[in-house]
Amino acid sequence: MSAAWTAAQESFPSELEVVIDVPRFGFVKRDDHGHIDFVSPLPCPFNYGSVPGSRSGDGDREDAVVLGQALPRGTRLRVPVVARVSFIDAGVADPKWICSAQPLTAAERASVVGFFVLYARLKRVLNVLRGKSALTRYAGIVVR
């Protein structure tokens, strides 16, 4: 094992079942009931989904990003886990699994980090509008 291997990585599942909520280049994120949860001013550069049967700190299913070609909303697939983004949403831990059939490249890592830094800024504004003033921020990435 390399020195970069951490306890957090040891708890990574090798793969996850993911349901796509927002296709790559989509703008609208819906909740489990189909209601609009978030409309992005910019298209999502990844397939953004969730892990059935899981629960994150916010009470919703754990989020998962699936790299690669655009997948239709509702697509269900098993995909390898390559990283995990630490994210705080309105004061609550809300990590995101990063999934891909291939190992994460340096360019993909930079893209994921850049996306979640920007997403945190936009989500912070949305949370204030929703009356949630607690901390919202990107808090790092652990790569398998």
What does it look like?
With 144 residues, the protein is of the alpha+beta class. It has a single domain (7-143), classed as Alpha-Beta Complex (Inorganic Pyrophosphatase). It is 19% helix and 35% strand. The protein has helices spanning 7-10, 106-129; strands at residues 15-22, 28-30, 36-39, 47-50, 63-66, 76-89, 92-93, 96-99, 137-143. The strands form two sheets. The protein has a five-stranded mixed β-barrel. Strands 2-3 form a two-stranded antiparallel ribbon. The model is unreliable at 1-5 (pLDDT under 50).
Helix content: 10-25%
SS field, number of helical segments: 2
Give the number of DSSP strands: 9
Structural classification: alpha+beta
Silhouette: globular
Q: What's the structural domain tally?
A: 1
If you compute it from the alpha carbons, what radius of gyration comes out, rounded to the nearest whole angstrom? Answer: 15 Å
Distance between the termini: 11 Å
Order of helices and strands: HEEEEEEEEHE
CATH class category: Alpha Beta
User: How many strands, which pairing sense, and closed or not: the largest β-sheet?
Assistant: 5 strands, mixed, barrel
CATH homologous superfamily name?
Answer: Inorganic pyrophosphatase
> Any low-confidence stretches, pLDDT <50, length ≥5?
1-5
CATH architecture type: Alpha-Beta Complex
Mean of all residue-level pLDDT scores:
89
Strand order of the largest sheet: 1-4-5-8-6
Would you tell me which CATH topology applies? Inorganic Pyrophosphatase
Proportion of residues in extended strands: 25-35%
